[in-house]
Amino acid sequence: MAGGRCGPQLTALLAAWIAAVAATAGPEEAALPPEPSRVQPMTASNWTLVMEGEWMLKFYAPWCPSCQQTDSEWEAFAKNGEILQISVGKVDVIQEPGLSGRFFVTTLPAFFHAKDGIFRRYRGPGIFEDLQNYILEKKWQSVEPLTGWKSPASLTMSGMAGLFSISGKIWHLHNYFTVTLGIPAWCSYVFFVVATLVFGLFMGLVLVVISECFYVPLPRHLSERSEQNRRSEEAHRAEQLQDAEEEKDDSNEEENKDSLVDDEEEKEDLGDEDEAEEEEEEDNLAAGVDEERSEANDQGPPGEDSVTREEVEPEEAEEGISEQPCPADTEVVEDSLRQRKSQHADKGP
């Protein structure tokens, strides 16, 4: 009985002692506030702070496992920011899509170094020691800066930030329709398609109204006169083109005629040369025939001396007779000349 009663009493005393210890220790622990974070959140309203001084920025997303692994290292790096004389910030790409577009962030986590408005991409690991050495040893000087249109402060990146902001708002609205209101996803897509068409039509109407406001139409008589002038100019141009074509045709015809005349003259010249050559040949043949005839006449009738000579020297007489031209040969030559003349006459000039 005594042992059974002592057990519950000891248990009650032990519970009371633990409660007292907890009560005494609770206020001390509550008196110690949590250590504030040295990492400064960056938004679209205060991101211009990085244009002055030296900064290190981290782009992350709450759902990114790699980003969560580097959180403690980033906090430790921020605690030593005063020693390193550097400010440390972070950007939530879900809450600030405009900044992710301005820096053109495509992978997470992403780190950037900024020195007096000049930005560089840090591609090393997000470990405290590597980050500290990057600043102390000034390794960022060997990294090519983001200049020109790639700079986050440029006009191009400002437009990119606007596009990313609009896409982020559309994404939040889509989540509101599908998650909060429970609307099917295809209904949300149809809504955005219709909204895009309506917005495009509205912007077109605005452009038409603006053009009508700035464009002053001409009076009716001036517009008619301008139309008449335009028609007259077109008619004048058509006439000029027609005249140019006619002149071109005339010049072509004249060239063709000149070429034909030249060809005819060349043919006539060739014909005259042929005739002259033929006449020379005829003259030469006629002269040869006349010489042969004159030689034959000069020999005279055969006398006694010739007879005796023929009797004495018959062989020499036969050779002399053979050397005299035959009348049949002369006739053949004349016939060939006549045929050449007739052929030339048939061909014409």
UniProtKB/TrEMBL annotation:
Residues 1-25 form the signal peptide. It is found in: Endoplasmic reticulum membrane. Residues 225-349 are annotated as: Disordered. GO terms for cellular component: endoplasmic reticulum membrane; nuclear inner membrane. It comes from the Eukaryota. It is a single-pass type I membrane protein. GO terms for molecular function: disulfide oxidoreductase activity. Gene3D superfamilies: Glutaredoxin. The keyword Ribosomal protein does not apply. It holds the Pfam family Thioredoxin. Residues 52-135 form the Thioredoxin domain. Residues 225-240, 335-349 have a biased composition (Basic and acidic residues). PANTHER family: DUMPY: SHORTER THAN WILD-TYPE, THIOREDOXIN-RELATED TRANSMEMBRANE PROTEIN 4. This is TMX4 isoform 1. It comes from Pongo abelii (Sumatran orangutan).
